Amino acid sequence: MSDFVLDPRLDRDTTLLTKLGLCQLRLMEDSRWPWVLLVPQRDGITEIFDMTPLDQTMLTFETAITAQALKQATDCLKVNTGALGNQVRQFHLHIIARTEGDPAWPGPVWGHGQATPWDANARAKFTERLLEAL
């Protein structure tokens, strides 16, 4: 098995927050939504069924604890999760905090407007709250 390599687009559009047991937890570089990704550190994975049963179980666990931490850190109304992979084939799971009245509410966040970069101070505060909740 070769070393894990992150897709360059994920590397460009996200920032590594921490590494969990299976996944990298990455912050999406769009401050309009508290939006993180889980990226399993496995090469050649494009679908959840490409993963071993143990990795699937770990992904489920890491998704649950991340979603719960995101809800606690943001006090959002709803946590959305999704694994689309149409543009970036490397398996990654989006976990997004949604609140009534956010820029795309109640529609999906994908394709809505232009990304707004994080202010360094806001990113630091959000990251601290999320990692503390995790």
UniProtKB/TrEMBL annotation:
Family matches, as PROSITE patterns: HIT_2
GO molecular function, one term: hydrolase activity
Residues in coiled coil: none
Record protein name field: Diadenosine tetraphosphate (Ap4A) HIT family hydrolase
Family matches, as SUPFAM superfamilies: HIT-like
Organism: Hoeflea halophila
Keywords tagged on the record: Hydrolase
Matches recorded under InterPro entries: HIT-like, HIT-like_sf, HIT_Hint
Gene3D superfamilies, A to Z: HIT-like
